[in-house]
Please model this.
Amino acid sequence: MSDTLPAPAAADPVAAKTDRLATIKAEASKLKTEASTKARSAAEEGKTRAAETLGSVSHVTREAADKLKGTQAEPLANIINSAADSVESFAQRMREKTVDDIIDDTREMVRRSPVLVIAAAAAAGFIISRFFKASRSDDAEA
Model:
């Protein structure tokens, strides 16, 4: 047997690399957890704001429909009230569900009806582009 002792682990280049790698992995894991927490919090805030906005849209829509009652447009008021009910129902479901539930529902909808999702995304893109185009026209006239 030899009287020499093995060198300390810190002097071993392989051990030093392993230690650095473990430290980097731990830091990456910590950053991932922090990012996930912040993203979830932001998503929850966005969900709450969206539900509040939809509730407001429903309320304003009902007020508009109420103004049509007692006029020749009363059948239209009934249709508008029905739409307001649907919007309020959707807002209520958003309030009750977690962000994870909404993500799961969205994934399931994409799996079941990808064409519908693509069409809805295209329609939303068209509406948003028209909105921005109209906004630029208003700015140019001012």
